[in-house]
TrEMBL record, chain A:
Transmembrane segments: none annotated. This is Sigma-B regulation protein RsbQ. Residues 21-254 form the AB hydrolase-1 domain. Belongs to the AB hydrolase superfamily. GO terms for molecular function: catalytic activity. InterPro entries: AB_hydrolase_1, AB_hydrolase_fold.
UniProtKB/TrEMBL annotation, chain B:
One of its GO terms (molecular function) is phosphatase activity. Its EC number is 3.1.3.3. Residues 201-423 form the PPM-type phosphatase domain. The keyword Hydrolase applies. Gene3D superfamilies: PAS domain (3.30.450.20), PPM-type phosphatase domain (3.60.40.10). Pfam families: SpoIIE. Residues 432-441 have a biased composition (Basic and acidic residues). PANTHER family: STAGE II SPORULATION PROTEIN E, STAGE II SPORULATION PROTEIN E-RELATED. Residues 144-189 form a coiled coil. Residues 421-441 are annotated as: Disordered. NCBIfam families: sensory_box. This is Sigma-B regulation protein RsbU (Phosphoserine phosphatase).
Amino acid sequence: MTGTDVLHRNNVTVTGAADGPPVVLAHGFGCDQNMWRSVVPALAQRYRVVLFDYVGSGKADPGAWDEERYSSLEGYARDVVEVCRALDLRQAVLVGHSVSSMVGVLALREAPERIGALVMVAPSPRYIDDDGYTGGFTAADIDELLSSLESNYLGWSSAMAPAIMGNPDRPELGQELTDSFCATDPDMARVFARATFLADNRDDLGEVKVPTLVLECTQDIIAPREVGAFVHSAIPSSRLVTLDAVGHCPHLSAPEATAEAILEFLERL
Amino acid sequence: MRRGPGGETGPSSTGAGAGEALAALLEDSAEELYESAPCGYLSTLMDGTIARINATLLGWLGMERRAVVGRKRFADLLTVGGKLYHETHFAPLLSMRGQISGVALELRAADGSRLPVLVSSVVKHGGAGEPLLIRTTVFDATDRRSYEEELLRRRKEADQARAEAEQARRQAEADRARLAEALSVLQRALLPEVLPRVPGVDTASYYRTAFPGRLGGDFYDVFPLGDDRWAFFLGDVQGKGPEAATLTSQARYALRAAALCSDAPEEALTTLNAVLAERDGHDDPRYCTVVFGILEPGGDTGGTRVRIASGGHPPALVLRGSGWLDLLSTPGGMPVGMLSEAHFATAVTELAPGDTLVLYTDGLTEARTGPDRSTLYGEEALYSFAADLAPATAQGAVAALTELLESFGEGLDDDTALLALGAPAPQPEPGARTDRTGGLH
């Protein structure tokens, strides 16, 4: 697979300052690179911003889907590394939302020359509770999420993707973009959900020696503050910043504060 | 129209009923409609904190208003799976689009029971376009969910059935490939892979099965007997397929063994006849036609002497170096294995340099020709073809006959085997050859 093939496969978008230091934004489980749209303008002023969709999400090439590869987070990490190689990025800052924080740890292990720092937005190395560890969920909870995905199966194909919805209040969003946003193939979504919520990357965190920013929200059901503290303490080279934001997606609910925290970290590198 | 208690319908009672209904309608304020609508209403701040909720939804949840308003967020009302789904899909979609409709979620009531619902939300924006609050309607989807689950189940069954059919198709393909491989291995056991090099004699052969993937019933072989003597045979088992193949295999090894015990070709056929005629327990008696021969040096004119015996097989062709065609007829020979006592015919000839002996099976002469494939090619046509062909080397004769066979196309519906044994013509003088080649320039 050539670099051009990878750029097409992962629907790679490059924006911002062409000569700026590279910043790669990796979306989490659920939607696609458009999740970053509210923080991109702030980053784009001084940095070369790289956005992509994992295979199985957004507008990535569905023909590249390989259930075995994408059944573990290593498969997603290979997407990240292959995008970095295709653009010949060096010492890039990898900003990963949610599961992509752990994908970033695995990508760093595979290609340390490509990645110089990590930003983890609402990370969790393990979602399921364990002896002496609070992940926030039980195994049964994760099964329930999988069945929630299933029960919206019919909705995906018929109601949800096409039947929406002008955006009179947000004319800057193209109709095509809003139509396809989050409209993931349910079979691929299920594989990604399993890879995400059944993973355990706690032992991998100790390998991270690069500067790392851990961003957590004050009230996040998916990544509670105990988990943020765990990640921070497991990576000695990390800083922990708690955003005054609710939910799991501060880049959507508090984009200014999120962008500001990332920029402050980038400028200190 | 309402019926009175006595079952009578009178103007007075109708008037009273209509009046009541009208009064109820007039009293149905917007507030009353909001609280008691047949769906749940909910307004939240942008962070999801519940600011208003209607009585219908509180009733479904079994919760007190004061335990909810200002204290819970919308996601708190959902099952854990629903919360995850809300965070990873619902909230981003709502943020992106400003509204979202018909998402399937489950509420978790105070008593722990679950209520499947369909949720639609819209963001209300202020005058400057800033998002102010989220309005949400919640529909009871219990019946619809079970219907959808049924649809989903059927769809999964259909997917499963399709996957199984695909698996079966692949299995069948693999089985076919394995069978074809097994057949080709068996077929190779019935025929020599390459003919041995016979000193002073050129050999060539050709074999084709009428149906690829099925075992053929024709066979041939060439093998040494010692003292510069060589044996050869070519035969045709009646019938096709595995039954014919077992007989082919028996015939080949019986002839090889018999040839070592006797110098007379007809005795090899007699031995084979005994072997085949004694085959017990076969409901389907089969037999074969065979030409068996021995090559030995020291013919009367210094060429290779050929002695053959035939059991019911068509005459062998001898393409003379002079351009003449001889038929090595063996009339009266009986098919081998048909009767326990059998007579076989013999013939003798000599291959002088430039002569070639050609053996064939009747797939060649029984090829169907003509515009409607209704006439057989026939022996006369073959003799005429061979006469035109002579003189020819063993390779040349087989190549020409192969070309003839291919010209029959679909008219060729039986197995066909060819075996040619030729005494090489003397090489022209090197000088003469150079001259001839030069002449072509």
